[in-house]
Write a structure and sequence with these properties.
It contains 11 helices and no strands. The chain has helices at about 5-25, 45-50, 55, 70-75, 80-90, 110-120, 145-155, 155-160, 175-180, 185-190, 215-225. The protein starts with a helix and ends in an 18-residue tail after the last helix.
Length: about 240
């Protein structure tokens, strides 16, 4: 005959067993091993690897797009600029929108992780050495005629006459290239350089003679004037018959 104490002991054992089953039931994965949903991922390495490395390089040092691990670029582009470009993309270029509200797949929190970690990992307080770089955004419109002269002064030694390529640099007037980069992208590249390709920043084209903000704007205006009106169309369309 069971005693009351025996029954209580059995009840307690059953409760412990059921409690253990909540986490250790055979075949049930541990909560920590559960695969995260895409919107739950908050690790920088995973977010950057899946969304940014294909263009900006696995270590941020550049690829088909400019380097994000370029301290000079990070010195001229503030967090809000980087967040805006990442969220909304750049129309007419290969830079897509990543924010969900703009048709992408990243949440605002995930974009904040990327912006914060890009800054903390790859910026340097001494990136410009006390110099005053040209502003990220042009403060005055450029003029193509002046830009051609500035290109001859600062850029021709690498990119050749007319920007068609030289011993140290490729063509920068190639229609396919210009069709895939915005004026702002050209400006950022002229100012921050492309260390991955050996291109200096705005201070290094001529020793002791940094480019002014206006000269950068003028060079960009000249390059933009070479952009094809209809990218991908090798020849102009014939005029319609009268």
């Amino acid at each position: 005959m069971r005693t009351k104490g025996h029954a209580l002991a059995l009840t307690a054992c059953a409760a412990l067993a059921l409690s253990g089953c909540n986490t250790n039931w055979p075949g049930k994965p541990h909560p920590e091993s559960r695969e995260l949903r895409p919107e739950e991922v908050k690790e920088f390495a995973e977010l950057y690897g899946h969304n940014c490395s294909g263009c900006h390089g696995p270590d941020g040092k550049g690829g088909v797009a400019l380097a994000l691990a370029n301290p000079v670029y990070l010195a001229i582009a503030d967090d809000e600029t980087i967040r805006r470009v990442m969220s909304n993309g750049v129309r007419g270029t290969a830079m897509p929108a990543f924010a969900r509200e703009a048709g992408g797949r990243l949440t605002g929190d995930q974009i904040n992780v990327l912006v914060r970690e890009i800054r903390s990992r790859w910026s340097r307080p001494d990136a410009v050495g006390g110099a005053a770089p040209p502003a990220y955004r042009a403060d005055a419109a450029g003029e193509a005629a002046r830009g051609e002269a500035s290109f001859q002064t600062f850029c021709v030694s690498c990119h050749g006459a007319g920007g068609k390529g030289g011993p140290k640099g490729s063509s920068v007037v190639n229609g396919s290239y210009l069709a895939l980069v915005s004026d702002q992208g050209l400006r950022a590249t002229v100012i921050a350089g492309r260390p991955d390709l050996g291109q200096p920043d705005w201070r290094g084209y001529i020793a002791g003679r940094p480019m002014s903000s206006q000269e950068v704007s003028d060079v960009v205006a000249w390059l933009a004037s070479k952009r094809p009106r209809y990218p991908g169309q090798p020849h102009p369309s014939p005029s319609p018959s009268p």
